[in-house]
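Hi everyone,

Forwarding the result from last night's run.
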Amino acid sequence: MEKYQSFHFSPLNNRSMLMPRIPKGTEYHVDSSRLVNPFEPIPEEVLKGRAPYSLLNSGFFKKEIELEGAKRPYGLYAPQNLWSKGACAVIFAESGVTAEEFIKTGNWKQLADKYLVSLLILESPKWEKEQIEREFDYAWTTVYHEFSKRPTVDICESFFYPIGLGDAAGIAAAFALTYSATFPAFAVCGDCSVDPELLNVLRKLPSDGIDTWKKTEIAMPGFLIDKKGNAEAVFEYIKEINRVKEENLINQYGSVYLEQPRRGAYYVNEQPISQVWLADENSTKKFDQNEINEAMLRFVLRFSLWGGSGNNHLRPKRSWEEIGVIRVEKEIAGLPRYWDIYVPSCYRPDDKKEYPLVVAIHGFSCSPEYFEQTSDWHRLAEERGFFVVYPAAYPRNVGRSRFPLPGWCVWPIDQEGVDESEYFKVMLDDMEEKYPIDKKRIYAVGHSNGGRMTQRLSRTMPERFAAFGPTGALGGKSADAIEPIDDHMKCPIAFMMGEYDMASPSVEEGSIARETLKAYCRANHMTPQFENWYDNGIYHTLVMYDKDHVPMIRYTIMKGCPHTYTGEMAQLTWDTFLCHFTREADGSIQYHG
């Protein structure tokens, strides 16, 4: 095979952590067998005494991956007290350094413990730039395996960061730039050179998610410390993709360049925050390698890349403390539970005003902190003037994964005898007691397993909510197994599904989506109508009206979108649906069009 002719450099390559690994334009639906519980629960004596929200596994794990019949070793280090959906530095260690040797030398283990970051350590007796596509095969296969299979820890798709050292620096840089719609940022120190021919190939490729864009239109943060003085080509390339201008900015390491916003761009899902730091041997000589290691890790951890239509969305990485939520902890049904509250700055305790409340429910293996970052409901709440509460599922030991992960007890991870309603009742009562919540304007939204929980609330607690907004989830495991809905109380509901979601979004006869919508029509005393579609950009929407022409049911398919949640989804759900409904004291629904 000629150089740069593999799938890594194919116009059909739209790989990312969330997007399907298939040719663009091909309809994709995940095999339903993935939705069963394939593992034996962990013995309770193993779990006894451990912090329930921390992941089960920690320490160093020596591993190997099979490629073309041969096995290549690598290692993974997981710090203690790591929660689900954590970050991971993908380390390209210098030639001849095994993963086991790497974790015992330098300060990377200490940095992983300090910043609660897993280390995925790639090794090679000799990294081969002339065989870079084989090195890419090794790196991609290993990263994707650790993400998708979750053999040891649960790593967030938005927080994988390539970091290259020594003679592996250039390979790590080339890998990151090739997969710029997958990785939020990268950092390299050593021989940072990348073949100019490879960079020219990248310049000609379409972007991963939008055919009309070039790959060079995807901004990507990078910190490059050129120890060999031969990285001019990659320096120029990374400045090009970030649309920087020469501003003579510097920091303690070298030159700094800031991404320039695209002209006319409307930033909701992503933000123009990329930075490029370019340094060399001379500008960093006052720092030892341990200090440089920490600087590189701190640099990449400033950024996150969230799923969505197109090329995914670059945003700052924020902890729950930085976001500004209030964490509440309570024991409920004998278990330690918690939730996060966002209080809008417009709130004044003495203003005698009541505020709407959105209950924003995360999906399986996730957390409030994860959903805060991917959904940005709190940012919308700040602009529109309402409260948000982010509930936290308890890690369930039901065999859904190799170790307990947070999940709501609704299909496919039901747990006998567990009713999540009690948790939500306690949480809502606490919110109404502490804050002036308008009981007529409480809304439930959620994604994936959280979308299933949202639908469960519409069945078990409809009187507490004015409207519902589930995404990435339908009403049952099959078209003939839709969870029944009582028709004693109307439930306005707005579904959103991605074109490449975990279940087919199609509403054709016999589909899960169609039967789900028909079930809500029955609950709302409506005749199903499957003709009233309209298009708005990537959003293909069906609206169903009741006899008073109130749009009680809405169903949106997002073109080119995988199984994910974005800030734009939150904005559309609130502005065009939720805020128009109130639940009156008698249980009736009022529509304010």
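Residues 132-148 form the longest helix (17 residues).

Cheers,
N.
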